[in-house]
Structures are given as structure tokens and as C-alpha cells.
């Protein structure tokens, strides 16, 4: 999140402003992109943990 806030999002916001959109539109677009990235990462982690738990542990909760 720190790297995204420092490098990725300001560059995208600058690009939107340079294309002729207003600054409030650029900020809204920036928030939508950040929430999308966070949502996708969260969903990926949840799915990995759900399926990984069954893969790495047996029914007695012991590591294989």
C-alpha cells in the first residue's frame, strides 16, 4: 500500500488530470483503483488460505 500510494497512484492521477479531466474526477478514479487493488489482493489471500489449509494440513490439524 505504501508503494502504491507513493508511485502508482500519483502517476495515474497526473495522467488523468493531463488528459483534461477535473481534479475531483482524478481523485475519485484514484480511490476506485486503490479499492479495486485492495479487494483483489484480499480475495486472493482468502482463497489461498482456504484452499492451502486443506492442502498443507491433515484432518487432525497437523502439518503434512
Features:
single chain; 64 residues; mainly alpha; 2 helices; 80% helix; 0% strand
Q: What's this, in brief?
A:
With 64 residues, the chain is an all-alpha fold. The chain has helices at residues 2-18, 23-56.
Shape: rod-shaped
Cα gyration radius (Å)? 19 Å
> Would you tell me the overall average pLDDT?
81
The succession of helices and strands, N to C, reads: HH
| Percentage of residues in helical conformation | over 70%
The SS-based structural class is: mainly alpha
- Which spans of ≥5 residues are poorly predicted at pLDDT below 50? none
Description of the molecule:
This protein has 64 residues and is mostly helical. 80% of the residues lie in helices and 0% in strands. The protein has helices at 2-18, 23-56. The mean pLDDT is 81.
Task: Write the SSE topology.
Blueprint: H1 2-18, H2 23-56
Amino acid at each position: 500500500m505504501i508503494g502504491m500510494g507513493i508511485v502508482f497512484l500519483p502517476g495515474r492521477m497526473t495522467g488523468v488530470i493531463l488528459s483534461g479531466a477535473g481534479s475531483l474526477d482524478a481523485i475519485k478514479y484514484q480511490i476506485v483503483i486503490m479499492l479495486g487493488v485492495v479487494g483483489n489482493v484480499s480475495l486472493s489471500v482468502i482463497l489461498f488460505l482456504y484452499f492451502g489449509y486443506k492442502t498443507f494440513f491433515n484432518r487432525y490439524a497437523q502439518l503434512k
